[in-house]
Design a protein that fits this description.
11 strands
Length: about 325
């Protein structure tokens, strides 16, 4: 009886294994659900080049921007699960969009299989240099002394910067008001100009402005300091317990993609993240290369989903 079971299982596994052995035999599409030049695009192009070398086929990066990443994500989700369409994703795609949008064009929870979260991108709290704020404690005190009058800028409604500001509100017992812009560039410009005092955003492009003295970084959301700005303390070490906030960028495949293909892609992404020339593209700009496994990536996504969903509900955020 056991021999029969083993034979049946082997017969079922052979087609998938044979398919994986034949893969890849043609170019692979890598969909970036945002425009060129951003962090998601950079992740796809830098690591896509290494995947191309490792797999021996062309990796064609396609930017499909629009609707907060939904256009590109929907296109990837409906693609055949054959290993020839990949998605470069971020928290907005698989975690945040359902919190802010009623009409979703794809299944954010069940539409994709994670390959690897490749890069962490810490969320920084930055201020205009002329504000009386040099630390997170200063900011909390200033906001408490001016309830409802301190504004923070982010790259947009529903961004991780937006939610990070709400997290600081909750854990710090303050009430900063949010102003969302269409991307980081607009938010950075407004804070440098002094029209908004606080910026909550990823390191690019803000980190260059910090180094130039046009912005002051007062806290980073990761649990440890970041090598690119080692002088900037974490928010947690400044007394705000349980504060952790970093966005990330990684690779996904349509749900149903054969496991051997997912395993090969994960292996190649992890190998790429250890290369010095890849790290040199990310570390100086404030990113943290990680190359998480499929299980680690899934756990991170689920943890983020629970944290940000609870925060959005508590803050009264409703899908629109």
């Amino acid at each position: 009886m056991n021999r029969i079971l083993v034979a049946l299982l082997a017969a079922l596994l052979v087609p998938g294994a044979a398919f994986a052995q034949a893969w890849p035999s043609k170019p692979i599409r890598m969909i970036v659900p945002y425009g060129p030049g951003g962090s998601t695009d950079l992740t796809g192009r830098v690591i896509g080049e290494k995947l191309q070398q490792a797999l021996g086929v062309s990796i064609v990066v396609e930017n499909r921007a629009g609707a907060s990443g939904q256009i590109g994500a929907a296109e990837a989700a409906k693609a055949a699960p054959d290993g020839y369409t990949l998605l470069v994703g971020a928290p907005q795609i698989v975690v945040l969009n359902p919190l802010f949008f009623k009409d979703m064009r794809y299944d954010a929870v069940n539409g994709f299989s994670p390959i690897s979260i490749a890069i962490l991108s810490p969320n920084y709290i930055m201020v205009h240099p002329e504000t009386p704020v040099h630390s997170i404690r200063d900011l909390i005190g200033w906001a408490k002394a001016n309830p409802g009058k301190v504004f923070f800028a982010s790259s947009g409604f529903g961004s991780t910067g937006h939610l990070t500001g709400l997290l600081l509100n909750k854990l710090g017992g303050i009430d900063m008001a949010h102003i969302g812009y269409k991307g980081s560039a607009g938010a950075v410009t407004e804070v440098i100009a002094g029209r908004v005092p606080v910026l909550v955003d990823q390191p690019v492009p803000g980190i260059a402005q910090v180094r130039a003295g046009k912005l002051r970084a007062i806290g980073v959301g990761t649990t440890t300091r970041v090598p690119a700005l080692p002088e900037v303390p974490t928010v947690m070490e400044q007394g705000v317990a349980d504060f952790e906030s970093a966005t990330w960028f990684g690779f996904f495949a349509p749900r149903g993609t054969p496991q051997p293909i997912l395993d090969r892609l994960t292996l190649e992404v992890q190998k790429a993240m250890k290369l010095a020339d890849v790290q040199s593209k990310f570390v100086p700009s404030g990113y943290v290369p990680v190359g998480l496994s499929q299980a680690e990536s899934a756990a991170r996504i689920e943890a983020d989903r629970k944290k940000w969903t609870a925060l959005a509900v508590e803050a009264g955020v409703k899908p629109q």
